[in-house]
């Protein structure tokens, strides 16, 4: 089951699988004729349609994953073999990086060069990083009584993992979820976003080509209220991992609790603060603040990013100079067709997101914030939102309190370090935070005081596959990346071994 996506601008055709990927085959739905129309956000045209999974299809995918876990994966294959297959998959993604990047750009809107050089490059590295862990999953030997008994622990794959990924990083989030799960021996039922299913389906082709046994990775495009809900409440799914909104995260957690109390990890929303102190390198701080609000779906527009530094607070003494510098930096970015190699940014993902972001921009204006850049709609086709920067903001404004998921920045002021910390922590979220200062003592004090799972000092929004990532407060539960992500897909079994104690009876 496939369709051909013709890319006229590049004079190429891309074969796109459009069925459900279950047991290493692309198949139609068992009981539904529903399809998902996949839209190109640059020109608002339909790219193709893919099969939309029903609850019965989710059952079939979970059954395939369970069978593979019990027979050809899980405890039935060595860490060496898991690593070999993961590295083979990384090789294939590297081989097809350009085609995957074009497909990502068509479906998501981000520039090809960003998808290829950043998202896909990082995903290849992520797979190889976790392939390195596959034969190093180790337990402990524990002293109980040296004369008669000891205990040891085994770290075991938790089983079938349901994984639900968002539309802002379709390939990157796929790798973040898939890599640690495969490394420890879990099998997977993947639900990509209904807005951006194409690269997950294309990657499924490569999973089969790499030689993974049938049922190890299954891909079920579907509406969140269907596929996501079915995975979260499924009694034969052992763990669910979700990246997306806090509202949906709550529903998934409730469904997991109401069904079989499956393990849950959630990477949710954010309203991340970015503090600019007077001792900083002003030019560098402006560069990083621009990246913080303009990263994704381009290099760097349109800030469809959970860790977006969407609240910048600047010390009074440098506020005006910093804002002037920041505006000049953001103006340098070219935003256009993602297929154009010179594009620094593309459109937001769809009409719903476009309307949502513009609603926040209008809210900022009506609540009295001052627009110093942007704030005007384009007259051309496509879901473009040019970077918009507000100053003169108050803590009670919607643009300061709520996650926007678009290139809208609120810039505020502070006088003292204590005031900066209070403003930064005045949020229900706790995903990321940043600060710029050349005072080492201040860097230590402030980074310790910020309530966030990740804090950047004199940089922003860069992650490494060997460093854990996750949130505090309403930004989530659990960690991705680094060795900590392995814990999300494993359980620890304790084994008590008695080799010398005799039990008298009756005791």
From TrEMBL:
All residue ranges annotated as the Aldehyde dehydrogenase domain in the record: 33-495
Keywords: Oxidoreductase
Molecular function (Gene Ontology), one example: aldehyde dehydrogenase [NAD(P)+] activity
Catalytic-site annotation from UniProt: 267
InterPro entries (UniProt xref): Ald_DH/histidinol_DH, Ald_DH_C, Ald_DH_CS_GLU, Ald_DH_N, Aldehyde_DH_dom
Claim: Iron is one of the keywords in the record: no
Domain of life the protein comes from: Eukaryota
Gene3D superfamilies found in the cross-reference section: Aldehyde Dehydrogenase, Chain A, domain 1 (3.40.605.10), Aldehyde Dehydrogenase, Chain A, domain 2 (3.40.309.10)
The family this protein is said to belong to: Belongs to the aldehyde dehydrogenase family.
Name recorded for this polypeptide: Aldehyde dehydrogenase domain-containing protein
């Amino acid at each position: 089951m496939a369709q051909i996506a013709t890319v006229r601008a590049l004079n190429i055709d891309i074969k796109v699988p459009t069925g459900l990927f279950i047991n290493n085959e692309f198949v139609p739905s068992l009981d539904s004729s529903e399809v998902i129309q996949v839209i190109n956000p640059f020109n608002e045209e339909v790219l193709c349609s893919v099969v939309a999974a029903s609850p019965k299809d989710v059952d079939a995918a979970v059954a395939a994953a369970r069978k593979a876990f019990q027979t050809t994966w899980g405890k039935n294959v060595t860490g060496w073999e898991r690593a070999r297959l993961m590295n083979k998959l990384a090789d294939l993604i590297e081989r097809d990086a350009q085609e995957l990047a074009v497909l990502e750009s068509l479906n998501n809107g981000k520039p090809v060069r960003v998808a290829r050089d950043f998202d896909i490059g990082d995903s290849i590295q992520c797979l190889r990083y976790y392939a390195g862990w596959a034969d190093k999953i180790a337990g402990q030997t524990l002293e109980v009584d040296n004369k008669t008994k000891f205990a040891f622990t085994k770290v075991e794959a938790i089983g079938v993992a349901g994984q639900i990924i968002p539309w802002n990083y379709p390939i990157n989030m796929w790798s973040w979820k898939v890599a640690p799960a495969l490394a420890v021996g879990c099998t997977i039922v993947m639900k990509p976003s209904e807005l951006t299913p194409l690269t997950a389906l294309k990657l499924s082709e490569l999973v089969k080509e790499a030689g993974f046994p049938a049922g190890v990775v299954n891909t079920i495009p579907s509406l969140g209220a269907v596929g996501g809900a079915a995975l979260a409440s499924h009694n034969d799914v052992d763990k669910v991992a979700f990246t997306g909104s806090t509202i949906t995260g709550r529903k998934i957690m409730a469904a997991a609790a109401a069904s079989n109390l499956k393990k849950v990890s959630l990477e949710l929303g954010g309203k991340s603060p970015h503090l600019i102190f007077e001792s900083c390198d002003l030019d560098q701080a402006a560069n990083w603040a621009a990246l913080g609000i303009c990263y994704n779906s381009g290099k760097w527009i349109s800030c469809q990013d959970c860790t977006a530094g969407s609240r910048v607070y600047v010390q009074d003494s440098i506020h005006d100079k910093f804002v002037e510098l920041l505006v000049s930096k953001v103006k340098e970015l070219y935003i256009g067709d993602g297929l154009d190699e010179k594009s620094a940014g593309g459109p937001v993902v769809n009409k719903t997101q476009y309307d949502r972001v513009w609603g926040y921009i209008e809210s900022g204006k009506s609540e009295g914030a001052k627009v110093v850049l942007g704030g005007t709609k384009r007259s051309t086709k496509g879901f473009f939102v040019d970077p918009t920067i507000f100053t003169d903001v108050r803590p009670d404004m919607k643009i300061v309190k709520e996650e926007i998921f678009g290139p809208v920045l609120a810039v505020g002021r502070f006088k003292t370090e204590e005031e900066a910390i209070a403003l930064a922590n005045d949020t229900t979220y706790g995903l990321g935070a940043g600060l710029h200062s050349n005072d080492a003592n201040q860097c230590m004090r402030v980074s310790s005081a910020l309530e966030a799972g990740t804090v950047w000092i004199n940089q922003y929004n860069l992650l490494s596959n060997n460093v854990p990532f996750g949130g505090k407060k309403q930004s989530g539960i659990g960690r991705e990346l680094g060795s900590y992500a392995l814990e999300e897909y494993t359980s620890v079994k304790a084994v008590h071994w008695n080799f010398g104690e005799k039990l008298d009876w009756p005791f």
